[in-house]
Amino acid sequence: MQPYSELFKAGELVFAEGDAPTCAYLIEAGRIEISTTQLGEPRLLAELGPGMLLGEMAVLDDSTRTASARALTDCRLIPIDKAQFAERLAHADPVVRALLMSQLTRYRSALARLTGEADGFDAAPTMQPDDAYALDKIRLESDLRAALDRKELEVRLQPIEEIVSGRIAGYEALVRWQHPERGAVSPAEFIRLAEETSLIVPIGDYVLARVCDMLVELRERGRKPLPFIAANLSGRQIDDPGLVQRILDLLHARDLPPDKLKLEVTESLVMDHARIGDLIAHCHSVGMPVALDDFGTGYSNLGPLLTLNFDQIKLDASFIKALDRPRGVAMVGVIVGMARALDCDLVAEGVETREQREILHRLGCRYAQGWLVGKPLSLGDVLEH
Questions:
Q1: How confident is the model over 320-337, as pLDDT tens digits?
Q2: Among the residues of 115-164, which ranges form H helices?
Q3: Which domains are delineated in the chain?
Q4: Model pTM score
């Protein structure tokens, strides 16, 4: 179906300087001349063609038209109303929105100077709450880059217990950031920020290298058997075709066995079966295990477990909290049986009480992780235990 469009004959005015901004236009065909009046004389500003936007500036800041638009040839324009712009702008990234409005302010200021109306233009509009948030986000991103360069991000280890023996079989690597002014920054905040940018890849590489160094220190301190350490992967890391080889290079440089570094993939990423399947196959070909993290967090689908050969399933803490109810015990028991049938180890996350651990023991769950087992520790604290 063809989108609704408006036709303008050559020489016809689309809108005039001073008009209210009822809509913007996408030029589908033809050419448009943009002009303004400078000191009483007409001045050509631009000539626009197919695929270009027309009149969007006035719509964005809801101000009167500062230039006129006239069809140079017969034109077909698709109107874009103010509501469409407002909706998209409201859902845009705050940083992108702030940058856009900053550019718009500069444009208005330059145009005002050009037309001799600079005195009537406020070049320093009041900062809105969203603008302050966006600027703070930009500052935090810059600080995060600096912290990564200075190796100020700390990798902590949360212990994972083998329930039957009571021994610590491994750890999950968790990255933490102590900001010099803000104090501890929530991992949810800075990891989300890193994932919105290219930062997540170097941060991921930093964590993987640190994990390998930690395994070396554990080995040198006589830890036998050497525990495994699990590290989470982001979607951007998984997209990198050189990821597994880089990890192997890290391991080989330190003479570490590949089965001691376990890669974790969150459940939200497994919808792309082909991509995750290729990653698992590549990892298995070099002896590196892969775990499905956060199973049961809202994306639960048994389909991926039929086609993706995970070595371990990490059960979300929400299931463990439900162990105080018969239905919760029954559900976890079913998941334990499923993991056993799939030849997967099961790790219960968020274990906080002895009663939860005892139920998991009775159900046959192999591993427990949570504050009952231990909080995330520095490597120094791990070595002292």
A1: 999 999 999 999 999 999
A2: 129-149
A3: 6-92 (2.60.120.10), 152-384 (3.20.20.450)
A4: 0.72
